[in-house]
Amino acid sequence: MAEASPAAANAELLEWPKKDKRRFLHAVYRVGDLDRTIKFYTECFGMKLLRKRDVPEEKYSNAFLGFGPEQSHFVVELTYNYGVTSYDIGTGFGHFAIATEDVYKLVENIRAKGGNVTREPGPLKGGTTHIAFVKDPDGYIFELIQRGPTPEPLCQVMLRVGDLGRSIKFYEKALGMKLLRTVDKPEYKYTLAMLGYAEEDQTTVLELTYNYGVTEYTKGNAYAQVNTSPSGSISNYFFI
Ligand SMILES: N[C@@H](CCC(=O)N[C@@H](CS)C(=O)NCC(=O)O)C(=O)O
Fold first, then answer.
1. Which residues bind Zn(2+) (predicted)?
2. What is the DSSP string of 139-162?
3. Is 141 in contact with 95 (CB distance < 8 Å)?
4. Residue 209: which of 172, 170, 168 has the closest Cα?
5. In the chain, what are the domains?
6. Among residues 3, 58, 70, 143, which one is catalytic?
7. Which atom of ligand 1 approaches the CA of 124 most closely?
8. Is the CB of 94 inside a 6 Å radius of any atom of ligand 1?
């Protein structure tokens, strides 16, 4: 059979995102102690442990956690590699965000459980939304965002990018995401772009951050990928 020409392959790439109903499935990353992270996410964030699996022949274990079942929610897929207790998180990955109706109460609870609060709750610099930042036991950052009730509390994945226009084009064309909004903050020298498959208060979105003049970030070795999918099965992913 003749191979598809590059032009045909590209045309298909632009067509298929229109035909299916995708969503964010899993954020896959590595942790140094699975039970420590499970305890932190369940006790501090209120996530549920959805499933665990051990793959001794490959020397790793996984745990899946989220705010609802995998069939309908974005979840984290933690990987523990036998004997590896720490990772380099790099600078390209920013944070995950969790929406909460009361960021002050959530922070109080996290602090009471011994969590590391790196930014006290209060209005966003140059904005009105109340936020806070906490670090999990491996150093992964979670932004806590105060907003009304939402079906998907695990609401953002923030990545830093060196060329916003190029990245927006990639997520639109290759993964069929919609550009939901952009925000420029010249006083703080950054621009944001929110992309996703539905509105921000309905589902998880990708937040791209461009810091003026910064064109490169390090990847580290801690993050694997975010999987996106038509409901049900993994069909795609992007690396972070
Ligand atoms: N230089 C920042 C730019 C992005 C940024 O500042 N984002 C806002 C949230 S949208 C933030 O972290 N604000 C901190 C604050 O309000 O204290 C970065 O790369 O993380």
1. 77, 95, 143
2. S-EEEEEE-S--S-SEEEEEEE-S
3. yes
4. 168
5. 22-216 (3.10.180.10)
6. 143
7. 16
8. yes
Kindly give the pairing relationship between strand 93-100 and strand 141-146: parallel
Cα Rg of the chain, angstroms: 18
Could you report the per-residue pLDDT of 195-206, keeping only the tens digit for each?
999 999 889 999
Tokens 């392959």, residue located: 9
- Per residue in 104-144, pLDDT tens? 999 999 999 999 999 999 999 999 999 999 999 999 999 99
- Ligand 1 centroid vs 232 CA: distance in angstroms? 34
Percent helix, strand, coil in the chain (nearest 5)?
20, 40, 35
**Residue 54, H or E segment:** strand 48-55
Backbone torsion region of residue 87, taken as left when φ is above 0, otherwise alpha when ψ lies between -120 and 50, otherwise beta: beta
pTM attached to this predicted model: 0.89
DSSP 8-class letter at 102: -
Cβ–ligand 1 contact at 211 (below 6 Å): yes
| Token duo for residue 52 | 């665990």
Q: Measure Cα distances from 235 to 12, 25, 117, 178 in Å.
A: 15, 10, 36, 18
Q: Which residue has the tokens 């069939």?
A: 71
